[in-house]
Amino acid sequence: MAAEYEPTDGVAAPNDKENISSDDSKHDDAGEDAARTKSLSSQTQKDAQAYERNKANAILANPLRGYSHAQLRKMGRSYAYTHALVEPEDLRAFELGAVLAQNPAAWERCAGLRDEEKEILRREFASKWAQPLLLYLVIALCSACAAVQGMDETVVNGAQLFYSVHFGISGPDARSTWLLGLTNSAPYLGCALLGSWLAIPLNTRFGRRGTVFITCVFSALACCWQGFTNTWWHMFVARFALGLGIGPKSATVPIYAAECAPPEIRGALVMQWQCFTAFGIMCGYAADLALYRVPDTHNITGLNWRLMMASAMLPAVLVVCFVFLVPESPRWYMSKNRHASAFESMCRLRFCKLQAARDQFYMHKGLEAESATVLGRNKFAELITVPRNRRAMQASELLIFCGINVIAYYSSAVFVSGGFSELSALAASLGFGIINFLFAIPAIYTIDTFGRRNLLLATFPLMSVFLLFTGFAFWIPDQTARVGCIALGIYLFGIVYSPGGGPVPFTYSAEAYPLYVRTYGMSLATATTWFFNFVLSISWPSLLGAFKPQGAFGWYAAWNMVGWFGALTIMPETKARSLEELDAVFSVPTHEQVAHGLKEVPFFFQRYILRRDVEMKPLIDFEKARQHAGETEEIFGDA
Q1: What pLDDT does residue 200 have?
Q2: What 3-state class would DSSP assign to 297?
Q3: Hey, which CATH number is domain 129-326, 1.25.40.10, 1.20.1250.20, 1.10.10.10, 1.10.260.40?
Q4: Where are the chain's structural domains?
Q5: DSSP state for residue 607 in the 8-state scheme
Q6: Which residues contact 552 (CB under 8 A, 6 or more apart)?
């Protein structure tokens, strides 16, 4: 008979599976941990710290590993009593939900389920997209937020053809090119310096919905403000303020979607952000084209570009109108110790209380595990000082500099310089936006089928070739052939970018880091991405003037090959890897990763070109790695 479960502030390690909750067992567990740590005294301090990190990551991977069903029922009931969820149905839901939380796929082994609950659980795994209508409203909200960001980024593409003349910064001189670049890049400077870092205090104070509301209000007002500017520096200030809305929103919305969604569709929802950002980019191009012929009035000069810049406020206003129709993130409620509110919110996002209790209880134990770990007190420093984290950081950071933003922000100007009329340039930009959106959709499938690294190794060289093709097309003397080849090169670049360089960086950064530093790693990745958006945007007009289109496109073609070499040598695959396997992957010394990556080139040539029967040893023997990870898992029991 198991001892009565008492909730703890930390996570008990279930070595004695029949007596996990008593104070004696807690002291025993602590003693065993201390003894285990002491036994490492013969090793270096670095080895001891690595062991502790592996142990903490094992807890975070599944804090319920090793408990019996009886123990889990008591834990669930205790949780419900502790947080005043004492209705009979609530108590029953948390008792059974705690059992299901340990292994949701094994629901058939859970005793006491009703027939209707079995049917709901069966449908959950048989048809993962069969979800409550309210959850689809959350998906629609997140998609609309992504569209807000896409439009914010690209309405400037067509508007700059006009406001650069209006503000006197359209000339080829150095002052004009740098001021145009500075004006266009202002939002990304705002994101990198302030916006991305405002996500933490805004989320802490106002929650996910509140942050989305505030940032969309800010975006809407800043977009409207852009339409009333009359000098370049006034436009710079308005667009810098726009970055304060873009940054926190881009960091918050994917988190909000992940915290509301069931695990089965969580990855697909992360991909929806990229997909609908591409949709917003397409809408920005469409708005530019639709408003091109708007004439000036007797007292308004530049009405067309003013409406272009202000049009990006429309999806933001739409989000503001219905953001509070969806529930707040249950995880945010729990971080504020509002467990009853979290359960109410979770029940609205699931078909039955049993599902809600299961997901909330697992979330609760995960939060306990995060708060109990003593690792990562200086988490930003540990991104660099811990070799495993540093390798994850260098792999994720190399993916952000492929040149797509040059096309997203300046395609209309590029087309005009290639011989297009302004109207034709806007139409050609819309074509790029449509391609970018349509070819982002298959990424939901390809990223988990072909793998992150393989997608980049396949697409980086093609992106480089198509950028070179675009640049060299400017040497074609015949205008008809020239404009056709320029458009073809840019379109082909978009086709290979959308399923490769588009979705991979964000997805890779989200999974490469261990859980205890993942938020900090993602914040760094977001801020770095926006900073390089700023660098590309501010430097392109001057780069174009100094190197001409051939050299400017060649510059970014070279960077794509740098990205390919980086993906080959220092970016291990993360697809379908467990947390323990990722620890093994990123624990391989960098020089070994580089050497293995370089060996893959002749292997690929011999195996797939010369068709020889050759084999190559994998970088990691995962069976052996699992046995090594099992040393940690012995502390916690079987999963």
Answers
A1: 81
A2: strand
A3: 1.20.1250.20
A4: 129-326, 383-570
A5: I
A6: 406, 471, 540, 543, 544
Cα separation, 193 vs 188, in Å, equals: 8
Sign of the CA dihedral with 42 first, then 47, 49, and 54 last: negative
533, pLDDT greater than 80: yes
Q: What is the pLDDT of residues 306-349, one digit of tens each?
A: 999 999 999 999 999 989 999 999 989 988 889 999 999 999 99
Domains 129-326 and 383-570 share a fold: yes
3-state secondary structure of 50: helix
Q: What share of residues in the chain are helix, strand, coil (percent, to 5)?
A: 75, 0, 25
Alpha-carbon distance of 239 to 232, in angstroms, equals 10
- Cβ atoms of 191 and 242 within 8 Å: the answer is no
d(CA 141, CA 260): 12
| N-terminal to C-terminal alpha carbon distance within the chain | 22
For domain 383-570, say whether CATH 1.20.1250.20 is its number: yes
CA dihedral (443, 445, 451, 457) positive or negative: negative
* Tokens read off for 41: 């005294």
CB neighbourhood size of 182 (10 A): 21
Which of 155, 324, 178 has its CA nearest to residue 246?
155
Contact between 85 and 339 (Cβ < 8 Å): yes
More confident residue, 582 or 96: 96
pTM score of the predicted model? 0.79
Quickly tell me which residue has 């070109």 as its tokens.
609
